[in-house]
């Protein structure tokens, strides 16, 4: 029956001939584990195609829904964690395998005559793979993806002469936004993989035309091996091993949840994926007019060196021992990539110390100096100070220019009039020096530059109000006394007493724990203590202390992350006044007053859950639990190994 | 014997041993990938919908025995979309503590019917189904009476549980 169907097909389409052509190959020098990388790349690429396609069932490439839809897949769709995890780790695996494959081809001298065209197509595959590795992480348009897009678009802008054109084409619209994301999506899921599939076929055809190059030693080449089943066995075994590792990575090391995009989180330090760290680090050496050398010059030169390798190295000698220059070049290149990647990995961008600038480092590093955009590096101290007042959380307690909290005094010209720079530095560094009862946190570790920027901004307020005859805002008694020293003060209108309002939009989104930790230190720690652990006194409240968050009150705690978030979110959104006659400290309405954005609140919530031993990205419908699934696969591999060895022993005995 | 088999050398045990591993490992990867892919493809297809109560409004001012179309915002969760959508229902007040709430969707093929006060009947403009004020079918192709929705009164404030039902069949089955 089967052979009848096969014959019927073969009469109309050369199925058997194609299978024979692809499997039947004599391998000079025999099979080797050194040859598995090409097959591994091919099979991992297939894995990427399948898991990529499957993600399209749930993922939508829009700036407002991208992150949410991806997280829905990862958390609420059965095996979504596995499909996304395999795609995420598969990308890294593919880059490593492509690197190993090219290294093997280079060391074996397999790019030499007659395999020049195979090499050329292979270099095309390398570039397409890197393109996929670059466009992929942009797609969720989260805190990470946005900045990757920014760097890509800015880099394109540094191309001499054509920069603006390239930048505008890649950006797609007047701002970095939906149209940009659509272009990256188009590139990542259609254009790049489409061309790559075509190139892989061309690569395989070229490879089959000349066969493997085999060992450089002529005597060794005389021994023949066969591709089927000997080499296929090695390929399949290694691919299975890689697959099991990828499942393990997906099960035990989930891809990070970068948090929703919020460009106000200026303390976020964007870094590229590990496979671009060497390039990122190299770029740092080029400033100003030299910038295009880093962004365009070096990649272009390296690409051309790769492309023309078989032509400027035409000697037929393949033995590495007799190609010292080629080998030195190889190891210098590898050393450069590894060193730069390691430095890049551990490096803190030049401006990390200054929170506001940190985030823009990668973005502005490659930004065209002629673009005319207000780069943060060109901002004045006053502008930076204004941003810092937001990012440091000053406006949580202080009202500035009509925005902010009422826990501390409003920062007006009248209040600041006559205060010297030195006085203000002391006030920021050590508020208790001026007001022993102050509850203002001491910003003792804030870098000098940031303190000066904040003061520039404050003095500018004082200056402006001096010039203006009528003060914009009327000031209640200008005093730096904390509200806590004024018992009986009416509750601020911003604070809702009694029962909380409903959870806000932040409660639906999965935040980033690290960003949440930073925000917590800036905004929450002064009352809830470091890591939410300390019991900070709150005179006048019925339990005399600010509630600890680590562990959180059993009334708010839930093993279900969604319920937990819904329990704590109203406090962050709408604030609360503790029970008691005259509580000195109150929970501030971070959401209602927009002191923290919804994205920031999301991150703080992820951190509070983390403190309480809960994962904000808790799996809702995992299909099978990740760890269980991984060990099931491992068990199956062992069963096959034992089964295979059993068969082998049994057949030997029969012989 | 097929050509494929001819291509291969006659069965040495080593080769069949290798083929066993190739087959077994390929099957393992195919299953470990295929089953999750099917699971994700099915995904939430068979998950039941969580009913949610939505406040429609105060019924004090409604006239008794007179169908009224009331609109209300209803919070809906659709996968990763959480949005407030506006729905409408037909409410017939019988007394200050008793009402009937009709889904506005014609059970024939899902059009929205309307109240015709002159004939005291609901008429669907699409295929001419006619219903009485109690929802009973008076004429046309409708396979069942108009669907009623669960409701509750807290004081004078009416809340309903928004639900939709399969159309075109005699039974009232939730979608």
List strands and helices in order, with pairings.
The complex is a heterodimer of chains A (655) and B (175).
Chain A (H helix, E strand, L loop, with lengths): L1 H11 L2 H9 L2 E3 L7 H20 L10 H11 L3 H28 L8 H20 L7 H15 L5 H9 L6 H33 L7 H5 L1 E3 H26 L24 H7 L7 H17 L1 H4 L11 H23 L8 H4 L2 H5 L15 H11 L2 H4 L1 E2 L2 E2 L8 H4 L4 H9 L18 H20 L45 H11 L1 H4 L32 H14 L23 H14 L14 H29 L1
Chain B lengths: L2 H5 L5 H30 L10 E6 L9 E11 L2 E15 L2 E5 L11 E3 L4 E3 L6 E2 L5 E3 L11 E4 L2 E5 L14
Antiparallel strand pairs in B: 1-10, 2-3, 3-4, 5-6, 6-7, 7-8, 9-10
Fold and architecture overview:
The complex is a heterodimer of chains A (655) and B (175). Helices cover 56% and strands 2% of the residues of chain A. Chain A is mainly α. In chain A, the strands form 2 sheets. Chain A has a two-stranded antiparallel sheet with strand order 1-2. Chain A has a two-stranded antiparallel ribbon with strand order 3-4. Chain A is elongated. Helix content of chain B is 20%, strand content 33%. Chain B has helices at residues 3-7, 13-42, and strands at 53-58, 68-78, 81-95, 98-102, 114-116, 121-123, 130-131, 137-139, 151-154, 157-161. In chain B, the strands form 3 sheets. In chain B, strands 5-6-7-8 form a 4-stranded antiparallel sheet, with no helix packed on it. In chain B, strands 1-10-9 form a 3-stranded antiparallel sheet, with no helix packed on it. In chain B, strand 2 and strand 3 form a beta hairpin. Mean pLDDT of chain B is 88; it is low at 1-10. The interface between A and B is large, with 55 and 34 residues.
């Amino acid at each position: 029956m089967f052979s009848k169907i096969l014959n019927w097909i073969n009469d109309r389409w050369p199925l058997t001939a194609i299978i024979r052509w692809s499997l039947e190959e004599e391998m000079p020098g025999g099979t080797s584990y050194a040859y598995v990388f090409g097959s591994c790349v091919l099979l991992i690429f297939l894995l990427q195609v399948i898991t990529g396609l499957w993600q399209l069932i749930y993922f939508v490439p829009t700036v407002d829904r991208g992150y949410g839809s991806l997280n829905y897949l990862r958390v609420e769709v059965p095996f979504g964690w596995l499909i996304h995890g395999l795609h995420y780790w598969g990308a890294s695996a593919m880059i490593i395998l492509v690197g190993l494959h090219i290294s093997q081809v280079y060391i074996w001298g397999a790019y030499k005559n007659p395999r020049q065209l195979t090499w050329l197509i292979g270099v095309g595959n390398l570039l397409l793979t890197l393109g996929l590795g670059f466009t992929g992480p942009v797609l969720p348009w989260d805190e990470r993806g946005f900045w990757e897009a920014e760097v890509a678009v800015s880099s394109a802008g540094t191309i001499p002469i054509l920069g603006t054109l390239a930048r505008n084409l890649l950006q797609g619209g007047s701002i970095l936004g939906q149209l940009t994301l659509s272009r990256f999506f188009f590139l990542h899921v259609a254009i790049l993989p489409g061309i790559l599939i075509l190139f892989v076929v061309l690569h395989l055809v070229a490879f089959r035309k000349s066969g493997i190059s085999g060992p450089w030693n002529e005597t060794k080449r005389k021994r023949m091996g066969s591709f089927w089943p000997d080499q296929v066995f090695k390929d399949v075994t290694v691919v299975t091993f890689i697959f099991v590792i990828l499942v393990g990575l997906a099960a035990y090391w989930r891809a990070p949840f970068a948090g929703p995009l919020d460009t106000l989180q200026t303390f976020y330090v964007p870094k590229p994926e590990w496979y671009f760290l060497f390039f990122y680090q190299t770029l740092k050496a080029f400033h100003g007019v030299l910038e295009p050398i880093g962004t365009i010059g070096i990649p272009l030169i390296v690409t051309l060196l790769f492309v023309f390798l078989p032509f400027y190295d035409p000697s037929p000698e393949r033995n590495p021992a007799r190609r010292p220059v080629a080998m030195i070049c190889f190891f210098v290149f590898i050393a450069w990539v590894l060193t730069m990647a390691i430095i890049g990995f551990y490096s803190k961008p030049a401006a990390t110390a200054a929170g506001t600038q940190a985030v823009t480092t990668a973005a502005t590093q490659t930004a065209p100096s002629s673009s005319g955009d207000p780069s943060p590096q060109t901002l004045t101290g006053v502008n930076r100070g204004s941003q810092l007042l937001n990012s440091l959380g000053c406006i949580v307690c202080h009202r500035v220019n009509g925005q902010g909290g009422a826990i501390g005094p409003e920062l007006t010209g009248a209040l600041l009039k006559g205060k010297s720079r030195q006085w203000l530095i002391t006030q920021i560094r050590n508020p208790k020096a001026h007001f022993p009862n102050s509850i203002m946190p001491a910003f003792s570790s804030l870098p000098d530059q940031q303190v000066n920027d904040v003061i520039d901004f404050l003095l500018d307020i004082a200056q402006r109000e001096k010039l203006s005859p009528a003060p914009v805002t009327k000031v209640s008694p200008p005093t730096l006394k904390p509200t806590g020293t004024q018992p009986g003060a009416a509750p601020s209108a911003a604070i809702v007493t009694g029962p909380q309002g409903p959870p806000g939009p932040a409660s639906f989104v999965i935040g980033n724990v690290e960003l949440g930790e930073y925000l917590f230190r800036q905004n929450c720690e002064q009352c809830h203590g470091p890591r939410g652990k300390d019991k900070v006194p709150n005179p006048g409240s019925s339990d005399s202390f600010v509630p600890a968050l680590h562990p959180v009150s059993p009334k708010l705690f839930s093993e279900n992350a969604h319920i937990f978030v819904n329990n704590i979110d109203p406090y962050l959104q709408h604030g609360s006044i503790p029970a008691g006659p005259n509580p000195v400290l109150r929970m501030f309405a971070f959401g209602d007053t927009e002191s923290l954005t919804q994205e920031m609140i999301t991150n703080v919530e992820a951190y509070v859950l983390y403190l309480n031993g809960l994962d904000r990205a808790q799996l809702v419908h995992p299909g099978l639990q990740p760890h269980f699934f991984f060990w099931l696969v491992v068990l199956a591999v062992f069963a096959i190994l034992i089964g295979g060895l059993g068969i082998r022993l049994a057949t030997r005995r029969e012989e | 014997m097929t050509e494929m088999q001819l291509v291969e050398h006659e069965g040495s045990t080593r080769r069949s041993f290798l083929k066993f591993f190739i087959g077994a490992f390929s099957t393992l990867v195919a299953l470990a990938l295929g089953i999750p892919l099917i699971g994700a493809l099915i995904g939430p297809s068979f998950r039941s919908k969580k009913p949610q109560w939505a406040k429609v409004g105060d019924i004090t001012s409604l006239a008794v025995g007179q169908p009224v179309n009331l609109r209300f915002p209803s919070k809906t969760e659709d996968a990763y979309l959480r949005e407030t959508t506006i729905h409408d229902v037909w409410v017939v007040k019988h007394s200050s503590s008793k009402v009937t709430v009709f889904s506005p969707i014609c059970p024939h093929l899902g059009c929205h019917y309307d109240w015709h006060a002159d004939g005291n009947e609901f008429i669907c403009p699409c295929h001419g189904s006619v219903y009485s004020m109690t929802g009973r079918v008076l004429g046309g192709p409708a396979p069942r009476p108009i669907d009623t929705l669960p409701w509750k009164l807290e004081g004078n404030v009416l809340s309903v549980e928004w639900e939709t039902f399969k159309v075109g069949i005699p039974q009232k089955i939730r979608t």
